[in-house]
Amino acid sequence: MNPAYATADHVFRVPLDHQAPDGPDIEVFAREVADPTRAGEELPWLLYLQGGPGGKSPRPTAGSPGWLPHALKTHRVLLLDQRGTGRSTPVTARSASRFDTADRLAAYLGHFRADAIVADAELIRRRLCGDSPWETLGQSYGGFITLTYLSRAPEGLRSCYVTGGLPGLSATADDVYARTYPRVRDRVLDFYARYPDDARRLRTIADLLTADDVRLPDGDRLTARRLRTLGLCLGMGDGFERLHWLLEESLDGGGRLTDTFRHQVMNLTAFTDNPLFAVMQETLYGQGAGPTAWAASRTLTGFPEFAEEADPLLLTGEMIYPWMFREITGLRPFAEAAELLARRTDWPALYDPHRLAANAVPLAAAVYHDDMYVDAGLSLRTAREIGATRVWVTNEWEHDGVSASGGAVLARLMDLAAGRA
Q: Which residues contact 333 (CB under 8 A, 6 or more apart)?
């Protein structure tokens, strides 16, 4: 039986701080993937930039991720574990606990934004491709990284594809969350319209958690506000169904939470595999415009419909709150450092508006009209501010359309970038 893919693992040593190349270094891992029937050919490279922050690159299996078989028809793919994720010197609760002060941990974490990821990618490109540019596919946060790449090293890029990931170039964290809460509210109400019993079930569970001390298998208390973070999944194509089936087995005949439910909620909300998602979420919008200062938490007060006692109970999305670093075991080692990051005011700019306006690298982007995570209005504004950009706006797919479409989204973007559509 022939393998679905021909793969090769690559490990690179890169500076923790590319501005201080003689300082400490870290390890960055990437997996090369090719069609077994074309593994010996000289094919153009496609670098995949995963969403997140804090998400490792997908591990390929037959037909998965959904875009990969289409990409391998014409390209050799590099699945990059961005620094701090997967096999790339991972940032974990255990590794964070080794730092003797919060200041040192915060300083370390400050080197895990898009600018450092782009510098890693350029080092890797030169080692794999020499002077030849490559193409990129950026999903969600991977699109944010793409615009940093175009701002800092466009000479390394031949074409770029972005799916659900054009950020506002000057949008602050406050701007982003002011736009995000209404979209999350509407998505939750759509979920309740499809599954009315789940609205009542979630209210019942929240009331139970308020009245009783319910523990998850790892010992953390399950609170109503942690329950509400399950709304994170609702922006994906199968998110409504995944949440519905989870809630279907939430209560036993005596009105108590089942072990199955508590175990699954722990896995979904513990940040064990991706603490960087929580730690770095608001730093994505830090560009010297003042501290992010827990923008999601501050902005929440302007939306009284999200009060815990409100009916219906509204779930939250990908917002990160200070209480998480006190109440979630996997985030507690980061608590003081996260506070320091929230106060930081000197974040360097991630995007160069002048360079992007003059961009000549073909950029094709899918903007999902109803995207719960990335505001379509900001994305379209950004598209107008970048040269050589073509945009496809669609409501056919949700945020994960590049994989869920089985290659159709990537194929459309490749045609757009090449002028075939």
A: 93, 94, 96, 97, 105
Quote the CA–CA distance of 134 and 376 in Å, as a whole number: 27
- Distance in angstroms (rounded) separating the CA atoms of residues 200 and 62: 40
Which of 399, 400, 403, 405 does the annotation list as catalytic? 399
231 token code pair? 């709304």
Contacts of 363 (CB under 8 A, 6+ apart): 146, 150, 159, 160, 161, 162, 386, 388, 389, 390, 417
| Nearest alpha-carbon partner for 197 in 261, 247, 249 | 247
Cβ neighbour number for residue 316 with a 10 Å cutoff = 22
For this structure, is 399 an active site residue?
Answer: yes
Q: What share of the chain is helix, strand, coil (3-state, %, to 5)?
A: 45, 15, 40
Whether the upstream peptide bond of residue 304 has omega within 30° of 0, thus cis, is: no
Of these residues, 22, 100, 213, 346, which one is catalytic? 346
pLDDT (average), residues 348-370? 97
DSSP state of 351: -
Model pLDDT for residues 102-132, shown as the tens digit of each residue: 999 999 999 999 999 999 999 999 999 999 9
Write down the catalytic residue from 57, 88, 140, 379: 140
Residue 2 reports pLDDT greater than 70: no
Contacts by 57-63 with C-beta closer than 8 Å and gap 24+?
Answer: 57/30, 57/31, 57/81, 57/82, 57/85, 57/86, 59/31, 60/4, 60/5, 60/7, 60/31, 60/33, 61/4, 62/4, 63/4
Residues 328-353 have a mean pLDDT of 97
Instruction: Evaluate if residue 63 carries a pLDDT over 90.
Output: no
- Among residues 395, 390, 393, which one has the least CA distance to residue 421? 390
Does residue 88 have an active-site annotation? no
Q: CA separation (Å) from 371 to 80, 103, 140, 256, 386?
A: 25, 36, 10, 35, 21
Structure pTM? 0.97
Catalytic (active site) residue 250: no
Classify residue 165 by burial, with Cβ atoms within 10 Å: 0-12, 13-18, 19+. Answer: buried
What distance in Å separates the CA atoms of residue 362 and residue 96, rounded to the nearest whole number?
40
Burial of residue 333 (CB within 10 Å: 0-12, 13-18, 19+) is buried
Backbone φ, ψ for residue 80 (5° rounding): -95, 125
What is the tens place of the pLDDT at every residue in 130-155? Answer: 999 999 999 999 999 999 999 999 99
